Amino acid sequence: MTDGDDGTSNRGADVGTSPDGDTIPDTDVSIRTARGDEMEAIRHLLDAAMLTVPANLPDRVAGGDALVAVDEGIGAESPDVVGALVLDDTRIEAVAVRKHRRADGVGAALVAAAAERTDAPLTATFRPQVRPFYEALGFEVEERDDRLFGTLPADPDVTR
Fold first, then answer.
1. Cα 82 to Cα 52, 88, 144, distances in angstroms
2. Are 113 and 128 in contact (CB under 8 A)?
3. Nearest to 119 by CA among 80, 96, 153
4. Are 152 and 139 in contact, with CB atoms under 8 Å apart?
């Protein structure tokens, strides 16, 4: 998957998941692995987006398979969770962003951080309404029944 004529990829560009998190350019939001005390915030975000909350969410958080986007602007002691992504191996199980932050690149940054965690393709199943989001990130999309299935090909140029 390439984005430009120079053969470079934007998969995982400028975003990582260090324990302290990395900041999204031009925002005060950082992406990091979720902590146990953020489980309710993740649950609330997924509920608000009308997504199914995984029954094993506590295990996903404990296993490091949940990422959060936090707004550090309100203070380091109580960062505000503005986005969350839950993985099941290389499949995006759920991704949600607070409505007022959806145009800020938070969802894209969460997906990029998830993509950096694996050498395998990243996959997702989603509703037609969010197809433009996944296509803009480079997912190859195919229709399956009433849902869409997307694959973000592994990038051989990215070392993880």
1. 18, 21, 30
2. no
3. 153
4. yes
Neighbours of 133 (CB within 10 A): 18
**71 alpha carbon, distance to own chain's centre:** 15
- As to burial, measured by CB atoms within 10 angstroms (0-12 exposed, 13-18 middle, 19+ buried), residue 72 is middle
Q: pLDDT tens for residues 94-140?
A: 999 999 888 889 999 999 999 998 889 999 999 999 999 999 999 99
Instruction: Answer yes or no: are the C-beta atoms of 138 and 38 closer than 8 Å.
Output: no
Give the strand pairing for 91-97 and 122-126.
Answer: parallel
Secondary structure class of 149 (helix, strand, coil): strand
Q: Which amino acid is at 101?
A: R
Residue 60 corresponds to which tokens in the numbers above? Answer: 């996903």
What is the signed CA dihedral for 118, 86, 148, 117, rounded to 10 degrees? -10
- For residue 61, list its beta bridge partners: none
How many residues does the structure list for the chain? 160
Q: What type of residue is 99?
A: K
